[in-house]
Amino acid sequence: MMKKLFSRIIALALIISPFTTYAQVVHFVEAGSYYYAPQILEIETGDIVTWTNAGGTHNVNFDISTLSGESFGNPSSNSLGTNTGGDLGSITFDLAGTYSYDCSIGQHAANGMTGTIIVSQAAGFFPPEGSVYNSDSTEVTLPSAAVGSAYDNTISFYATNEIVMDMSGTPVALTFISAEILSVDVPDGMSTSCNPGDCFFGPQAWGEVNLTGTPTNGGVYNLNLSAMVTINLTNLGIPSDLTFPVPYNGENAVLNIALAGDYSAVNGFIPNFVLNVDGDIAAISGCTDASATNYNADATEDDGSCEYASVSEGIRYVNEIFSDVTVTSNVQYGSNIGILTQAPVLEDLYMDVYEPTGDTKQIEPL
Question: In terms of domains, do 73 and 178 share one?
């Protein structure tokens, strides 16, 4: 049985694709004599920048400034080598910050061949190393746990100032106010905690949901993160805040109109996190027949307790109107002339009479 822990942890990177770390965007910069175009480029973490040499001998130097002779002090100093045309290479920017660079060939930098890459932290979930994504990143399988072994892993997340929602095919940027996770399901023997400690935060903030403990039963567990999100609708022409749950099932009439019945833009905020626990699965006894009246969906072995409704014992009335019946058999109620196989003859007609016990109601809906 799963324990539902009501820790307030926001883990929302509120954009259409919740995994911007893996939804990489490729940007292109042209290198020429003596320029980089664009000279200033703004991107997000996880994006790729590709430089193409339009002519001349050039490189891409993020390490030591050719002009000052000192380190650029960039978050990372990956650089690209020299060529005389074509593809100079690509760099993936995983760390937020401002990156300065130049061409270190001759007097190219002095002639203005310098550039800047401004990398903003992308909103998104950042699960622990070793996690596996499905094809569209809607499900993340975390590193496996094992029965009887300590588990300690963290899902990090970052929220920005805006969320982008697909409104009837048009992306609309809405101001993100706040959010919190309402519940996290974890296997028995495990618990969750969060950072910041109160598990409630607004935009431009990092957070963590920590999964720790020693699971006692094997199996595949969905963590079922649920959240409450608040956004501002001014960009939709509605100057007010709106709070809604995720997963979303049409709880808010205003949001329903904006979404035009398609809730996928909201429900894509939080992926489905899955934790596999290696080891024996605890046996749960019960009725495993789905057609039985006492079917137990959690049961792993049938204990012979299944019960079934019989036709004669089916529920006919909204409420029980009598508790028992007395049956009198072969009561003559009339006569009939039979002529099918013989000369006309008078035949007695019989019936069984069922007399209910405790039937005191005069009007009863069926």
Answer: no
The DSSP code sequence of 94-127 is -S-EEEEEE--STTTTTTT-EEEEEEEPPPEEEP
Range of the domain at 91: 26-120
User: Within 10 A of 80 (CB to CB), how many other CB atoms are there?
Assistant: 21
CB 12 within 8 A of CB 158: no
Q: Name the percent of the chain in helix, strand, coil, to the closest 5.
A: 5, 45, 50
In this predicted model, what pLDDT tens digit does every residue of 192-234 receive, in sequence order? 998 888 888 889 888 899 999 999 999 999 999 988 899 998 9
Same domain, 230 and 161: yes
CATH number of the domain that 53 lies in? 2.60.40.420
- Rounded Cα gap, residues 284 and 298, in angstroms: 7
Provide the whole-model pTM: 0.63
**Is residue 272 in some structural domain?**
no
Q: How far apart are the first and last CA of the chain?
A: 40
Instruction: Spell out the alpha helix ranges (H) of the chain.
Output: 253-259, 264-267
The verdict on residue 19 lying in a domain is: no
Nearest to 156 by CA among 178, 176, 177, 129: 129
Q: Token digits for 154?
A: 């963290």
Q: Are residues 258 and 158 in the same domain?
A: yes
Query: Considering its fold, how many domains does the chain have in total?
Result: 4
Inter-residue contact 190 to 5 (CB < 8 Å): no
Based on the fold, state whether residues 44 and 72 are members of the same structural domain: yes
Determine the Cα–Cα distance for residues 210 and 228; give it in Å rounded to an integer: 19
Please name the helix (run of DSSP H) or strand (run of DSSP E) that holds residue 27, with its range, or none. Answer: strand 26-32
Question: 146, 169 in Cβ contact below 8 A?
Answer: no
Q: Is residue 70 located within the same domain as residue 98?
A: yes
Give the pLDDT of residue 108.
Answer: 98
